[in-house]
Amino acid sequence: MEHIAAVLLVIGCSNTMTECRELPVSVSVFETAQECNAERSFVLSDAQSQAPRIIAKCLSVDPALEDDYDQIVWNVRPDGTLDASVEVSNLEVASNGARPEKDSLSQQ
Length: 108
Fold this sequence. Notes:
It is built from 1 helix and 6 strands, in the order βββαβββ. The strands form 2 sheets. Strands 1, 2, 3 and 4 form a 4-stranded antiparallel sheet that branches. Strands 5-6 form a two-stranded antiparallel ribbon. The protein has one helix at 33-46; strands at 6-13, 20-22, 29-30, 53-60, 71-76, 82-87. The chain is an alpha+beta fold. A hairpin with a 5-residue loop joins strand 5 and strand 6 (82-87).
């Protein structure tokens, strides 16, 4: 099983940097930060037609927590600086473990 060490985040913004959105990329997870950084320049070139201003950043991922990460938090400052991180939310999911077993022969 391969481990993830970096995630490539690509953001497209308006010329004024007031409206920004995540842009899809063909490959967004990488086994090494070096692979991510190498792909970053190609992605920037390919994404130029999707928005007037494009920002791309490789975000580090702790391989020990890769299954726990569930959100990317990002913010673009007016000067074009991208602050971003991969995080684990504090969301807890509750479930009822007491489910009655169904008898497939007696159900109609």
